Amino acid sequence: MKLRVFSDYAALCNGVANEVFTQLKRKPTSVLVFPTGNTPLGLFKLLVDSHRNRNADFSKAHVVILDEYADLALGDSRSLTDWLNRELLMPLGFDALRIHGFEKGTTAMEDRIKQLGGLDLIILGLGPNGHLGFNEPGSTSNSRTRRIKLTRETITSNAAYWGAEDQVPRWGDTLGLGTIAEAQSIILMVSGPAKAKILQQTLQSPISTDIPSTILRSCKQSTIYAACPAVHDSGA
Length: 236
Ligand code: PGA
Fold this sequence. Notes:
This protein has helices at residues 9-26, 41-52, 80-89, 106-115, 152-162, 177-181, 196-204, and strands at residues 2-5, 31-33, 62-64, 67-69, 99-100, 121-125, 146-149, 171-174, 185-191, 222-227.
């Protein structure tokens, strides 16, 4: 794992956007994964601006959905897939055939990833408990795409998106840690003082299922992009 430290959030988003552009130039048919949440919103804006200025070509790329709340009715406003569609995929001109979600279940998702030839670039956010996607503490490094019960900490942090904890679904579908670890390239975006402690733990705590993000330290192709106080570039 590598660590890249940025002076602020804008520089962090620029750094990640450049990785996406490089990936698309190298392989226009890339299979990409994006997180939802607040952290990637600045990245999304840069990608959409580049698309509008015709500086980036997403027309042949595919997107696999990282995670989604389980059992939502069609059109439920809490859908993470719909959030990603609104903020990124529709503005980038993705048609439905190039967006691969959990509609057919988690086993079908694993099959779909295989059919697509694997994940090229996966971008992740960091949960306050170290979750990646919805891989909550206890998730093993070889876990596959599956349904999982959300932890109290995730429900509390996700309440910020939907107004109250009782609005947050209790179960989610997520790409597994083993599935994520097979991606050609993995980027973890971490920003802001609220993430400083879990970032420090990600970098320094023993690699363990207690903090799922520590698994990235066993992935040579992973890079943490951080703009957090008190974290200095150690080239870890
Ligand atoms: P955030 O969410 O970007 O809104 O902090 C990250 C996460 O919980 O995975």
